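Handout for the seminar on molecular recognition.
Each group receives one record of this type.
Step one: identify the two inputs.
Step two: read the structure output and locate the region that could contact adenosine-5'-diphosphate.
Step three: write two sentences on what you found, then compare them with the reference statements printed after the record.
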Amino acid sequence: MHVEEGLEFCNLRLLWQTPNGRLTMFGGIEAGGTKFVCGAGSGPEDLKTAEIPTTSPECTVAASVKFLQENSAGNLQAVGIGSFGPVDLRADSSSFGFITSTPKAGWRNFDFAGAVRKVLDVLVGFDTDVNAAALGEARWGAAQGISDFLYLTIGTGIGGGAIVGGHVLHGLVHPEMGHIRVPHDLNRDPYRGCCPFHGDCLEGLASGPAIEQRWGVAGTNLPPAHPGWELEAHYLALGLANWVCTISPRRILLGGGVMQQAWLFPMIRAELARLLNGYVRARELMEDLDQYVIPPGLGNRAGILGAIALGEQAYRSQRLDKRSLTD
Ligand code: ADP
Ligand code: ZN
């Protein structure tokens, strides 16, 4: 077995070099419903980024690709795309790399990975935005060396990516952690929820838009002493308690706009401890909750660095494939 094969991607400390000794460049596209963040570089130190508004697939992808070409000094080896969804991630599917059933005009059934590959003619890694962000945190952020963890974003929606045994969890489609059902006490919280599919799923009750609809004021302007925050911490802790009991993560990273309210962290930790009630016996959950539920180490760069990590992963897999063919 090659040394590289024995290394968990999460623990990778390599910097790739081209045969002429120059640093290999990767491209990243963090594709969101309102904007794309594009990045070129080999990691956090040399990353160059640009934001592009999300318009039609043709215009947005053309502008993204142009940025990558202009900022990679001719060394672009692979591109990673972390995309809004739903996306098709089944490797054997004819629509792998497509955005599938989105209501977003023009993007439904768009061959995203194919469009980028066609213009740049490089390897393309493709995953959800949150899976990519989780990968970024594993590679350069607050989950380095941790084989099992969750990355969640609490913003316009709620999404989560899980790394299990050092690998991104995909499963049948990809996890939709924001849409889990949580207990909803209508006496305490008469708000019905804003998810168009489920009403009061976790996203429907605890996303940024849910806070704004329930209280008539965006989270940014909701005062710290407002009882809405206690409710928010309760719902998020319910989600966390469910994932602690199902996926058994060794750490949970909480990012996204709503988590900019840093004092939510101690509230969520205390509520998580209360809900688990000492049942799951682990030091991390009993004494070290301060280190267990934490912000992403890469802050708002988790998504774009995750996309770079996806590109790097595609490049690395191909190199290993080539080597095993010549063995
Ligand atoms: P997106 O999810 O669209 O990528 P964000 O993660 O910034 O973007 O999430 C936007 C949502 O988060 C909005 O509903 C907004 O009201 C809320 N939000 C943004 N910043 C804050 C903040 N500092 N405090 C509380 N809520 C915030
Ligand atoms: Zn839902």
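Reference statements: The first strand starts at residue 25 and ends at 31. Residues 54 and 85 are 14 Å apart (CA to CA).
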